User: Fold this.
Amino acid sequence: MNSKEEETNSEVTNLENESFIEEQKDPNQINKQIEDNKLDEKSLEIKDEYKFGWSSYSEITNGRFAMIGFLAIVLIELFSKQSFLKWAGIL
Assistant:
């Protein structure tokens, strides 16, 4: 690159930075950013309410019970020193 192109690029960058700074000082822009942040906060909230059917709350609850059940089977096998199916009398 020659020095003339570098000067032009730096001038463009400086102008962009100045316009961004001016934009940030604008009260309407600040209010818009605050509203955007409020929307982000609302989207992060998860309601722990039971709903009939396939809901995220039901899936989380079922997943937790499945983990507890799996842990129980592993502990039974560790303490009884035999497989769960044999311990339960299935085999």
About this structure: The chain is about 75% helix and 0% strand. The two ends are 79 Å apart (CA to CA).
